[in-house]
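Recap from last week: sequence in, structure out.
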Amino acid sequence: MYVIKSMRKSACVLHRNTSKFPFFLFHNHNIILSSSLNPQINFPCTPQILNKPKNPINETTLTPPMYEKKTKIPGGITHYNKIVKSLCKDRRVIEAYDVFCEMIVKGVNPNVVTFNCLIKCLCDLGLCEKAENLFSEMMSRRVLPNVVTFNILLHSLCKDGRVEEGRNLFDIMKVNRCMPDVVSYNILINGYCKDGRVHEALSVSAEMTEKGIVPDVVTYTTLINGLCRVGRIEDARLCFDEIRGCGLVPDVVAYSTLIDFLFKDGKYDEAIELYMDMKKFRVVPNINLYNILIDGMCKAGKVDAGEERFRELLASSVLEPNFYTYNIMINAYCKSRMIDKAWSLFEEMSGIKVGPTIVTYNTLINGECHVGGVKDAYLLLDDIRKSDLVPNIVTYSTMIDSLYKLEKFDNVSKLLRDMDDDGVIPNIVFWNTLIDGRCKSGKVDLALEEFRKLPSRGLQPNIRTYNIMMNGLFKNNKLKEADDLFQEMLIGGCMPDGFTFNIIIQGLLRLNETEMAIQFLRRMLDAGFSADAHTSTNLVTVLTSNKLDYASKEVLKTFFRLTYKIT
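Predicted C-alpha cells:
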C-alpha cells in the first residue's frame, strides 16, 4: 500500500503542531501538481455504484482561476458537509464528489469531516484504492486526519485481510500523535482474530490496557469469537467471565457468540446454562440468538426444544422469525424424517412476507429424497422454476445423488440436460457426486472418464474426488488402476487422509493382497491416522489367520495396542 510506505517516509510532518506542511506527502499519487488544484481521482461511474448526476461538474474544466474566486455562500462548510454526508449515506459517491468539487470552486475549503464522509463511502463500496487516493488529496490540502479518518482506513484494510498493512497504519497513528482509541484497537483485534492470529490479538489487547485504553464489551466479544474459532473454548469462557469482573455487562452479542460455539463444540448443557444466565440478568434476546438456540437444540437432537423456542418467537410481539429461522426448523424436521411438519412449515412460510428461498427448497428437496419422495422433489423443482428463483448447483447435486441411489439412471441424463439449459455450472462438489453415483451404479469406466475430463473443465480433483474414484476402482477389482491413481495423487501433491488409507486397506484385503494391506497399515499409523470400524473388523480376521509372517503380525499387534489405548 503506497500510502503507508510514503507516510513512513514523511511521518514527521504529520504532527499537529507542525507549522511547515509540505504540499505533497505521497509518491505515485493520482493528484495533479500544484499548477492546478483539481484532484483527479477518476471515480468509476457505474450503475452498480450510484446514479450518474444530471448535471455533473466536468472536473477537467476546473482551472486555477476558478478556484481562486472566493465566493461566500450561506451555510458554508456546514451546509456542504450535510449534503456530502447525505449523498454518501445513500452511496451516491460520484454526486458527493461533484459537491466536493463545487465546494472548492466556490472557495469553501473541505475539512476533515468532508474527507471522512467521502473516504468512508469509498471504502464501503470496496473502492479502497480510490479512498487511499482521496486520503493523499486530504494531505495535500493540509487537512490533518483525525482518529476517525484512520479508523475508517484501518477497518477497510482489516476487512480486506490486509492486517499487516493495518498494523503499519495503526503504528503510524501513534507516531503522529493521533492516538488510537478503543475503536482503533477493536478493529485491529478483530482483524487478527479473523485471520486466526489470536496470539497477536491478545497481545494488542494487552497493549491496549497498558496504554490506559479501557476495553469495552466489543473488545471482549471479539476476543471470545477469535478464541472460539481456534478451538480455545475454555479460554473464551474465562474471557467472558472477565467482562463482569471489569464492571461491564455482557450484551446479547457476547452471549450469542459463546452460546453458538458451545453448541458447535457439543457442550449442550453449558450452552443452555449460559442462556439461562442471560435470562437471569434480563439481557434482551435478538433474532440472531433465537436462530442460534433453535439450530443448536435441533442439531443436538432436541427438536422439541427447538420447536418450543420457534413457537415462542412466533408469539412474540417484538421479534418475528426470518427466513433463516424457518430454514433451520425445516432442515431439522427433514433430518428427523418429519416431512409432514416440514411441509406444513413450508406452506406457512409461503403465506407470509418471509417467503421461501432457494435454500428452503433445497432443504425440502433433500428431505424428500432421503425418504424416497423423488416425485415430490420433482414437484418442488418445478415450483422453483415457476417462482422467481433459479435452481442452483446444490439443487441438482441433491437430485442426482438421490436418483443414483434409486438407480434411475435415465432420469440423471435428463436432469444433466436441464441443468445445462438453466446455465448452472458444475463445481467439484457436483462432479464428486456424479462420479460417486457412476461408481456405485457399476459404471466405473464412465466415472473414470469423467474424472479424467476434470482439468479440461477448469477443475482439479480434491482428496474426496480421489477417494471416491479409488473406492470405485477397488470395488470393481481394478487394482492396477487404483494403484496408478494413488501414485498420480501423490505426484500431484494431494496428500492422503484417513479415508484414503481405510479405502486402500479394505480394497487390498478384499482382493487378498494381505501383505500390501499391512504395508499400508504401517504407513497409516506413521501418518497418525486410525482405522475405521470396518477396517478394524477385517484386520481382526487377518490376525487370526496363519498366513502372516512375523513382521506383519507385529504391525497388527501394534495397531491393536494403539487402538485399545485410544478407546
